[in-house]
Design brief:
The protein has 297 residues and is of the alpha+beta class. Helix content is 36%, strand content 24%. The strands form two sheets. Strands 1-2-12-11-7-8 form a six-stranded antiparallel beta sheet. Strands 3, 4, 5, 6, 9 and 10 form a six-stranded antiparallel beta sheet that branches. The chain is globular and about 55 Å long.
């Protein structure tokens, strides 16, 4: 499968964490690839034209990213996210989104194929892994630490209303509070906090983007010692095998309960490798394996 000029998509997967419809998205088009993790809606009703406001958001973003990728976007990932946030804001106004209501939010990780270089940009609790001459990880535990505080309150007697109020406050703060990290939203007073790693494609063997439901494979469950091990099995066995290991762990009643509001979360992952035409001596040991995998996609 072709993806831009310098990189190919090897594999992608997205699955729901439970009975509710999946609110994560994974995609690729032209010069862009992405994963989106919809943040749990804080309201029972929907204002935007979808079954839930967050579903509208993740689908709108996927469509916009597809258009921008097809058009060959080559700019900075942070600039693209700023432009998309403004587009979301304008659409919410068009749909008469109530001024006093907290809008839907999400986390994203995107790859921009800039020709000879790549741009991996993250906002929220998504993860980007770049492997090659060195392993680079773009991620944060900021949101995990905040969630653990809310879970602690819930498990120690907080009422349902108190738990929800805490969620509302944390969501508003990560939209507008100017904290070191933020979620993505179209809030009119938003303060986005994107984080980026860049470099030449010649230093890359593969790039993996994932939502936090998949990142549990290392961060929560320690099914792999590190991300390099994850990448080895992703290439050798495929992402569906890794997703299966996560779900088996989550279904095991003997497994300790993670400090999460959801025992099982939605998952979205994409795995990319540089085009073999641009392979260099730094990747000679892996180019054959990459070609074999690409032949199966």
């Amino acid at each position: 499968m072709e993806f831009g000029h310098a990189v190919r998509l090897v594999d992608s997967i997205t699955t729901p964490g439970g009975a509710r419809p999946n609110e994560d998205r994974a995609g690729h088009r032209g010069s862009l690839a992405w994963v989106i993790d919809g943040a749990t809606d804080l309201y029972q009703d929907s204002v935007l034209p979808a079954e839930r406001d967050v579903v509208w958001l993740v689908d709108f973003l996927s469509a916009q990213l597809s258009k921008r990728g097809e058009a060959g976007y080559r700019g900075a990932g942070s600039q693209l996210l700023a432009e998309l946030a403004e587009a979301v804001c304008q659409e919410q106004v068009r749909h008469a989104f109530p001024a006093g209501r907290i809008p839907p939010a999400c986390s994203l990780a995107i790859v921009v194929d800039q020709g000879d270089t790549y741009d991996v940009t993250r906002i929220g609790d998504a993860t980007g892994i770049v492997s090659g001459t060195r392993l680079r990880r773009e991620a944060t535990d900021f949101f995990d630490r905040r969630e653990r505080g809310g879970v602690h309150d819930q498990r120690n007697g907080a009422t349902a209303d108190q738990v929800r109020e805490g969620m509302l406050q944390r969501r508003w703060q990560t939209m507008t509070g100017g904290l070191p990290e933020s979620v993505f939203s179209g809030h009119p007073d938003r303060q986005l906090r994107p984080h980026t790693i860049t470099g030449p494609w010649t230093e890359v063997d593969q790039i993996l983007l994932c939502t936090d439901g998949f990142a549990r494979i290392v961060d929560d469950y320690a099914l792999y010692r590190d991300w390099q091990q994850v990448l080895v099995d992703a290439r050798a066995r495929g992402l569906a095998y890794l997703e299966k290991r996560i779900r088996e762990r989550e279904r095991d009643p003997a497994s300790p309960l993670p400090a999460r509001f959801k025992r099982s979360d939605d998952i979205a992952v994409v795995l990319l490798v540089p085009d073999s035409a641009r392979a260099t001596s730094t990747r000679e040991g892996t180019s054959g394996r990459a070609s074999a995998l690409l032949d199966r996609t």
